[in-house]
Amino acid sequence: MSSDPTAADYLIARAPRLRAYLRVLLGPPAESDDVLQELFIRFLRGGPRPGGANADRWLFRVARNLALKAVRGDDRRRRREAAYRPQSMNLPDPAELVRQKEDAGKVQQCLDRLDPAVRELVFLKVVEDLSYRDIADQTGVPRSTAASRVQEGLSQLARCLEGVRP
Amino acid sequence: VTHDDPERLAAEWLTGELPPAEAEALRRRIDADPAARDALARLEAARAALRRWRATFARLPPPPLPRPRPRRRFIVIVATAAAVLLAALAVWRWLAPTPPPTRPDGGGPPPADWAADEFTGVIADEPAPGPTAELALRLGVPHERGMGGPPGGDGGRQGEAAPVLRQFALQFQFAFRVPAELPGGYTLDRGQPLSPTAARLTYSADDKRMQVCVKASPGPDEAPRRAPAGPGGRAVWVARRGGVAVAIDGPVADREAFESLAALFLPE
Fold it and tell me: What does pTM read for this prediction?
């Protein structure tokens, strides 16, 4: 554990939200825990005071920056690997097939079908319940654009999820 | 809300951040429209599914927290290293010998200038009486040969200026020559023994004046050059040959002119 129990408790309490956000940002294959570790290290080294007014905002903003950086690096790595991968290796992941039978897997699958930018906006609005003003601060997307994309993304998600019972 | 698409109406109500009155009016429209009600139900189900999905992350084992190295230890290490370095520097400065003074351009200590050492203070704008009684050189007498030869030599004719010059010459411990005239119409009008090893001779021509200092100066021969050995650091011509140094302060045209003048004073 960290030497600061307050900071440790604070981070552990926010880990589920941050993991979900990173999963939304990173998509499959997710390396969210690696990014989460990097995020925690930055928070413990120079982040705001745990529980302060800006601490949550800081965590989500830095998580987003780290995730986008990881995605860029991951894209490069995947392009390199794809150039050398035999076609016969493109088989579905058995674990992924099993997960698809579960509700959570279905939601994840539907989320992954959304455009990444829309996916993030839907998550921030519908799951994190941020205002459009906060979403605009976090992502740089104008409020009206974010609102229309959230509505469109939520409709796509609902169509995808038809058949999944609460 | 101006559009009529049931799904857009439902999405607007769900996520539109509408003012209360507008939201209430929209809700009435949705309740009155079966298609909009269905759309709203589907969107709310999607929202609930999303939130359940997010809740699954809470069931995951907590992530390991990193163990950042305490900054305090790093600061202590850096501060200790800096203190040791400063102490070592202080000891070194205390033990090391003081370096010689350097010139402003960093070129090391200034070289000793033999000419400045020999003639600074010897050449004067207005020659003062010497440490001994000044010898009056009798002007107008034919002492054209001056004081030549070895110390005490008879440089003049019997009964003329030679006795004075002889007396003058006997006061010195080194050999030099004193010409009665110099090129350019200069004539010797004053001789001052400054010490047993230095003499100051003054020549004049009309309104021009030339001062010649001759001094015993042990050391290697030095080529003629201009050196700041005059009053206030004024440059004068200097040279040394055979242990005798000559400095001339006056209208000397160039190095060649000085060489020819100096040759008249230096021993053969």
Answer: 0.47
